[in-house]
């Protein structure tokens, strides 16, 4: 349950971004959960942690009071997004994720990256 006292336009955009990040996280989770033990322990945990960290850091940015704090956590989210892309590429090249599914995930992550950069540019 999300509680907000005052919602600004930028906050609504961040809420949509958080929702999109969570959607991507679920897509990745549904892939990783089917992997064997070794794959889950090596790449799987890292991939899931990275993708879940995107929405977690965006959520935390909304709870920050100062402009600098909000922006810092959005930068953390962007770093987690880049890490997710890296683990997604590794899991695809090692035959753990179907290339077509990975391409769809990458497109969603690229769209999320664009939206996050817009939020960072306009964040106050």
Extract low-pLDDT stretches. none
What is the quaternary state of this protein? single chain
Task: Supply the CATH class.
Answer: Mainly Alpha
Number of domains: 1
Strand proportion, as a percent range, falls in under 5%
How far apart are the first and last residues' alpha carbons, in Å?
25 Å
Q: What is the tally of helical segments?
A: 4
The gross shape turns out to be elongated
Can you offer a commentary on this structure?
- This protein has about 120 residues and is an all-alpha fold.
- It has a single domain (about 10-120), classed as de novo design (two linked rop proteins), CATH 1.20.1440.
- Helix content is about 80%, strand content about 0%.
- The protein has four helices and no strands.
- The longest helix is centred in the middle third of the chain and has 27 residues, at about 65-95.
Record keyword descriptors for this entry.
single chain; 124 residues; mainly alpha; de novo design (two linked rop proteins); 4 helices; elongated
Summary of the model, kept short:
With 124 residues, the chain is mostly helical. It has helices at residues 9-32, 37-62, 67-93, 99-122.
């Amino acid at each position: 349950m999300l509680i907000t006292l005052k919602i600004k336009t930028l906050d609504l955009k961040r809420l949509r971004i958080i929702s999109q990040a969570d959607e991507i996280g679920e897509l990745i989770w549904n892939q990783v959960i089917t992997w064997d033990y070794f794959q889950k322990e090596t790449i799987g945990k890292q991939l899931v942690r990275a993708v879940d960290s995107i929405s977690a850091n965006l959520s935390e940015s909304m709870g920050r009071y100062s402009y600098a704090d909000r922006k810092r956590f959005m930068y953390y989210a962007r770093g987690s997004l880049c890490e997710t892309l890296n683990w997604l590429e590794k899991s695809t090249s090692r035959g753990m994720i179907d290339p077509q599914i990975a391409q769809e995930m990458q497109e969603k992550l690229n769209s999320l990256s664009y939206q996050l950069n817009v939020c960072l540019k306009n964040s106050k």
